[in-house]
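Hi R.,

Here's the chain you asked about this morning:
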Amino acid sequence: MTNIVTLNVPSQRQPDPVRHASLMQSFALHRRFGDDVFWLKENAELLNILECTGAEVSEQGLAAYAGFYRDVEKRLQFFPQYYRFLLSICLDLEDIGFEGRKSEVLVRWAAQSGLAEAELSDLQRMEARRLMMRRGVDPLPFDDGLEDRMRRFMARSSTFSMPNKKAAYELTHAVFYLSEYGRRDPGLDRDTATSLEFVGVMAFLEQNADLLAEVCVALVQGGFDVPEAWSDWLISHTQRFTVETGGQTTGHDDYHEFLVTNWMLAATGQRAFVKPLTPERMAFYRPDGVAGPLRELSECMYKLDDRRSADWEAMRPVVLDHMSEDARHVITEAEGSCRDFDAFFQGFARAGSLSGAAL
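And the predicted structure, written out as tokens:
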């Protein structure tokens, strides 16, 4: 029986290309297999981060994708519903050094087939456009208002002052696409910066490293500062991740959080993926006991009913009196990390009444 082994090889013995190759081999060959859509998702995410951060990769790492690249046309033709994953992987492989120019043909075929026109979401349409424009093809030349609609969504800060993970992740991804993953100034306005801050506060209150890391990357790509309290916590959190290997490891792990927190490190000028890694089946686990006071804070506010106020200065002593010591510490840090916590709290409190609403 294969035992689960926690890796403890000193990371300084592994040069960057070796660690990156280990990640590529593990994700491409050992975590999932065949035409599993989760294989596509995991590998698209990994390669995207390696590509946009300019990570050094080796021939050994690229070779892990030889089988995928050989059959990518067949996959796209039979699984057109996964075209964004397939294009993303193929584009990134070529752009980080894989020999070949298949992506040009795939992009033209996808555009001519109208695959982007089947999307119902502006965010997915924006991703499709971003992917295909990497090879000079606009799949939606008739949609001149796509970017304007997305910017209106991003600038509505009130959307992001209450828990809404779907909207929060759509906000960060919109920044990624508009900035070409940090390659150009996305021209974000102050309202969008406020939206990002509100999502960051929410993620910090929840101690949600996955979302907070994406917010930090989006802030960097938008040309804004990352609050020190957020980056310090994410650095410590990432350092405490556990990497395990062995036949008994499961794919139901925290791989995405591991990838995006390391992406945050790279985006803020720090060395990423410093954990010792191995070119076999790996699983990634966040530190135990990570839970923020967001739910506790929400329940406290909800139970106050008509005593609930949108005035943070008035509510602060009431709220903190109901919180544990650890919760009070996180809330105080969140308060200090936000440019306008009062405005965030006005939306978060959801005070007032529906009785005066016009019918």
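Confidence is low (pLDDT under 50) at residues 1-11.

Let me know if you need anything else.
M.
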